[in-house]
Amino acid sequence: MHEMSLAEGILQIIEDQLRTTSFDRVRTVILEIGALANVEIEALRFAFEAVTRNSVADGAGLEIETVPGEGWCLECIRAVPLAAMFDACPQCGGYQVRVTGGTEMRVKELAVD
């Protein structure tokens, strides 16, 4: 389950911020996760709760904003929405689509006290 390592990475980012910015606790973590990032959201929530126990982020809320999948169709020569990796182009039905967005995951914001 790679969601555990993702949650550990989020905690590491929080701890890095704690060293550079003074705060007592984290109230909310806002993440952006691409629709094509292959992250199981509920497993990530569970892992985040487990790894943040007894830390500055213990009890913090986890808000997730989904970034839509996007690709560039080499046949249509335009950007197209993608629901899944390796999907056909929704315009022409071709498979010459290069993924250009929706695979990212980043900590967008921390709400702290």
Key structural traits:
35% strand, 113 residues, 2 helices, single chain, elongated, three-stranded mixed β-sheet, hypothetical protein PF0899 fold, three-stranded antiparallel β-sheet, 6 strands, alpha+beta
At a glance:
27% of the residues lie in helices and 35% in strands. By secondary structure, it is an alpha+beta fold. Helix 1 packs across helix 2 (41-51).
Can you give a write-up of this model?
The chain has 113 residues and is of the alpha+beta class. The protein has a single domain, classed as hypothetical protein PF0899 fold. Helices cover 27% and strands 35% of the residues. It has two helices and six strands, in the order αβαβββββ. The strands form two sheets. Strands 2-1-6 form a three-stranded mixed beta sheet, covered by helices on one side. Strand 1, helix 2 (41-51) and strand 2 (61-67) form a beta-alpha-beta unit. The chain is elongated and about 55 Å long.
- As for the number of domains, it is 1
> Numbering strands along the chain, what is their spatial order in the largest sheet?
2-1-6
Q: Using the 3D structure, state the CATH architecture.
A: 2-Layer Sandwich
**How far is the N terminus from the C terminus?**
31 Å
Instruction: Write the element-wise H/E pattern from the N-terminal end onward.
Output: HEHEEEEE
Low-pLDDT windows of residues: none
Largest beta sheet, briefly?
A: 3 strands, mixed
The secondary-structure class comes to alpha+beta
Strand content: 25-35%
The whole-number mean of residue pLDDT values reads 96
CATH topology name = hypothetical protein PF0899 fold
Whole-angstrom Rg? 17 Å
3D shape: elongated
What is the CATH domain class?
Alpha Beta
Number of helices: 2
β-strand number: 6
Percentage of residues in helical conformation: 25-40%
